[in-house]
Amino acid sequence: MLHLPIVVIFSSLVLALAHHPRKTNYNEETARTLLQMSAAAYGDLQQVCLNRIHSSPYTVLTPLEGRCDGLFDTCAGYIAASDVDRQLIIVFRGSKTDWQIVFQGLEYFVPIEFYGMGKINSYFADGVDVLWPRIQQVLRNPMYSNYTVTFTGHSLGGALAAVAAARTVAEGLRPGHQLTVYTFGEPRVGNVDFAASFDELIQNSYRVVFGNDIVPHMPPCKKTWIFTGACVPSPIWHHGTEIWYPESMSVGSNYVECVGEPRGEDATCSNKHNLIFYFRHFIEFIFHNHFVYDHRHYFDIEVPAFGKAGCTIG
């Protein structure tokens, strides 16, 4: 009799999984780890963070940093490797200043053609370009030729991660099936052609979005109505699969694998909010000089602060 509750609970879990089968290969444990690695890019204690985050040894191979706009803002990150897991993880830092975010938005109006895949925001292309020599050097190193490669980043870092992954395939440095992309609060990167090309080349790509985070909705897509409705094919469109946590990101929280229509801009996920809703949050960001809470906080950590503190809370 003492074992009956356990049997009942287990049976309930099996039944729940049967009614809510997984739709993608998204792994929350992997996402939590990569979010912490993305946070580490905001500080100067990447190796300290890696030692705390991973059970198997990961080593920082090289830092990444370069000037990526006319205001002397930098794009940055680092590359880590594990000989045990036989994996490279290429991590990109998010925006460092508010003006850097403004520059990203302005560059939306200057899209550029990207390896015949479609058009992307030129700021993101330039950001990857200044970091590319070191990334390319590591990817071409025979020592890592059979390592899987994961690209990750938060905010701007997510956009750079996506562009770098696409460039890796476009330049023949790795086939798409060897790549994984996890991003957090990533803005829209390119047009609908780029999104389609990206999704064809790299299937294992997940854009994690928390609650009402405004950044994944910037720049805004064109709607079926002026302020509401689903996104329609336009000069700006999301790639990959959105993973939406509508309420909480604590352990055990519900999330949605957004594989509905339109592809990349599932109207039943975070896109269900209208433009007036997000415009209000954008005004809050501009005039109160801070990120919207949901953009700063993923998986219950304040992302930049967590990384700057060496991946400790408190």
Automatic annotation (TrEMBL):
Gene Ontology biological-process entries: lipid metabolic process
Listed Gene3D superfamilies: alpha/beta hydrolase
Keywords of the record: Signal
Keyword hit for Signal: yes
Pfam families from the UniProt entry: Lipase_3
Domain Fungal lipase-type, first and last residues per copy: 90-222
Alphabetized SUPFAM superfamilies for the sequence: alpha/beta-Hydrolases
Transmembrane segments: none
Signal sequence coordinates: 1-18
Presence of the UniProt keyword Signal in the record: yes
Protein name (record): Triacylglycerol lipase
Species per Swiss-Prot/TrEMBL record: Ancylostoma caninum (Dog hookworm)
Lineage: Eukaryota, Metazoa, Ecdysozoa, Nematoda, Chromadorea
